[in-house]
Amino acid sequence: MNSRFTLLSSALADLKNSSRFRLAPNSLISTKSFSSYVKRPSSCINVYKNQVLKGGVVAQLKNSFDVSSSTLSLGHSQVRTVKTLNFGGTKEIVYERSDWPKEKYQEFFKNDTIAIIGYGPQGSGQSLNARDNGLNVIVGLRKDGRSWKEAVQDGWEPGKNLFSINEAIEKGTIVLNLLSDAAQKQLWSEMKPYLTKGKTLYFSHGFSVVYKDLTGVIPPEDIDVIMVAPKGSGRTVRSLFLEGKGINSSVAVFQDVSGKAKDKAVALGVAIGSGYLYETTFQREVFSDLVGERGVLMGAIQGLFLAQYETLRANGHSPSEAFNETVEEATQSLYPLIGENGMDWMYSCCSTTAQRGALDWYKPFYKATKPVFEELYKKVADGTETKRSLDKNSSPTYREELEVELKEIQDSEIWTTGKTVRGLRPERKSK
User: Fold this and answer.
1) 0.85 cut: is pTM over it?
2) What is the C-alpha separation between 202 and 192, in angstroms, rounded?
C-alpha cells in the first residue's frame, strides 16, 4: 500500500477509535463514506493529504462543530447534543432526528389529529410517512377526484381517515396545508372558518403567507403557524423514508400562540421523514426556493444544457457525443462527486487539462450569469414571479398549456437523444 493509502487508512482508524466520535451508518459522517476516499484516484487523495497532516481527521471534524456540551456522541444509542453548526463561518441552528425519537413524538401528538390537505407529491409522501410513524393522520381532498382515487389506492378509507377538505380541517387539530400554491389561494376563504382557536396550521412552503397581498392567505391570530419544507420532491420524501434515510428540511415558525410551535414543527418534521431540519423564516425559505427552482436546480440547468448541446451540434458533433459531453457525464460522473465532497473534490478527480479549463472558464460564466440571478432574485422579492405563477396556474387551460410546454422539451433532440443514451447504461441493459 502506498504512502497516501497508508496515511488515510491510519486517519480512518483514528476516527473510528476516537472516544469522542462514535460514528454510525446514518451519522453526519459515516466511516463507510470516508473509507471510500482511499479507493479514489491519487489525484483525489492529494487534496486531503494536507488536511489530514494538520492535526488529523478527528481534529478537522471537531473544528467544524460548535459543541454546546462537553461531549459529542454520534452513536445510535446516544442522543447528540450539537445544535449549532458552523457553515462557512456562519453559525446556524440545526435540529436532527435523534432529538425526537418515535416514542417521544408519538407521546407529544397522542391527543392530536393530523389533517393533511392535498395529495400531490408532498401530500402523499408526508401523509404516508406520518401514518407509518404511528400518528393519527387523516386526509382531506375533493371527493371523487383523481387524488381521491389515488388516496384510496394507498389505503386511505373514506369516512374513516379520508374526508372532504372541510371535514378534515374541522376534525384536525393540526392542519397541514399541502395544496398547490394556486389551490391554497382559491380555497382559502372556504378553509379559514374551520381554523378555530388553538389549532395549528402547517405549510411546506412559505409562498401563500409571504405573498398574502396576492394570495389573501392571512392566518387567524389565535392559532400556531409553522412550516416544514423538505428540500426535495414529495416522492423523494417517501422513497428516502422507505430506505431508512431522511431528507433535509427547512423549519420555521410564523406565529407561536401556544408557546410550543417550534416543538410542533420540529417533531412533525421528523415524523414526516426529515433527517435534519435547518432553521429559517417563511420569507427566506420562499425566496431561496423560488430562486433555486428557476435557477440552477431546474431553469438555468436546462438553459445551460441546451446552449452547450446546440453549440456542439452546430459544429458537427453527433447527437450522442453532444449529449454525453453535456448531460450524461455531468449527471452520472461529475455531479455525484460534487455531492460527495464538494466542487474542489470533483476537480481533483479530473485530469489536469480538465481542471485548467474549468478553473479558467468558470469566471466568465459567473460574470455572464450573475446579473441574471440578481434580476431573478429581484423579481422573486417584489412578487413579480409570484403573480406570474398564480396567474398561469389559475388559468382554466393551464394543464393543457403545461402539457404542450413539457412535450416540447420531451420531443427536443437533446432529450430524445438522452432517452436512447440512458437505455444503453449497463444496469438498464442487464434488465
Assistant:
1) no
2) 13
